[in-house]
Design a protein that fits this description.
It is built from 10 helices and 6 strands. By secondary structure, the protein is of the alpha/beta class.
Length: 233
């Protein structure tokens, strides 16, 4: 019976992998991305303060990843709350070839292989897209101290809260260091040692949420939760 359960689980994983590959190819075709090369998505948040605090370390981490794997494409969905030209100006000093897309975060996440994501509803979207991620966040130390005093949860990302464990890495405040981000990303990109474990965990989270058909409903509920009780400055 145990062997049959393992066989069934392996078969289900293969089916999910195949369906995921089909969704990814479709999303890449729509976005004009390489159909087979590695793609890394950067989701630095929807507010200027988040961009100012989080984008630079994310870009430096992407540079480190590309130093070892120059074929990695970079893509960033610009939130509707941000001006695209302003975001481009924040990226320009890095010299990195980052493709900007207006919105379409879920499609970008579906197209990528892994992502670095500012903590918020985007982590839930990444989970629903079945994408391994590194979660980052940085706020003022006063805000962080107050949050730690008021919020008694072991994790800050929705995906880890739903998983009930540290499924994906969370690099917060001083721990949000480019080399640490890059090391985790290398482990999550295709061929990385942590990728399969995280994919199986994301499958569990997706089943708990009812599958990809619930993406919009769940994301909206999470957005309301964060608006009412999330950490803001």
């Amino acid at each position: 019976e145990a062997a049959a359960s393992v066989t069934k689980g392996a078969r289900g994983a293969r089916v999910e992998d195949a369906a995921d590959a089909t969704r990814q190819r479709t999303a890449r075709a729509r976005l004009g991305l390489d159909p087979s090369g590695p793609v890394l998505a950067l989701l630095p948040g929807s507010r200027r303060m988040e961009i100012r605090r989080c984008l630079a370390p994310m870009l430096e981490a992407a540079r480190l990843v590309r130093a070892a794997r120059p074929e990695v494409e970079l893509i960033l969905p610009v939130a509707e709350t941000l001006d695209r030209r302003w975001v481009q100006g924040q990226i320009a000093p890095s010299g990195l070839p980052v493709r900007l897309v207006a919105g379409r975060a879920l499609e970008v996440l579906t197209a990528c292989d892994a992502a670095v994501v500012v903590s918020g509803t985007a982590t839930l979207e990444a989970a629903l897209a079945r994408r391994p991620m590194v979660v980052v966040y940085r706020v003022s130390w006063l805000t962080w101290l107050l949050a730690r005093l008021l919020v008694r949860t072991p994790y800050v990302s929705l995906v880890n809260l739903l998983a009930g464990r540290a499924l994906v890495p969370e690099l917060l405040q001083g721990a949000m260091e480019p080399r640490a981000i890059a090391a985790h990303l290398n482990a999550l990109l295709p061929g990385g040692e942590a990728r399969e474990r995280v994919l199986r965990g994301l499958d569990e989270v997706r089943r708990r949420l009812g599958g990809p058909g619930t993406a919009e409903r769940v994301a909206e509920e999470a957005r309301r939760f964060l608006t009412d009780g999330g950490i803001h400055e």
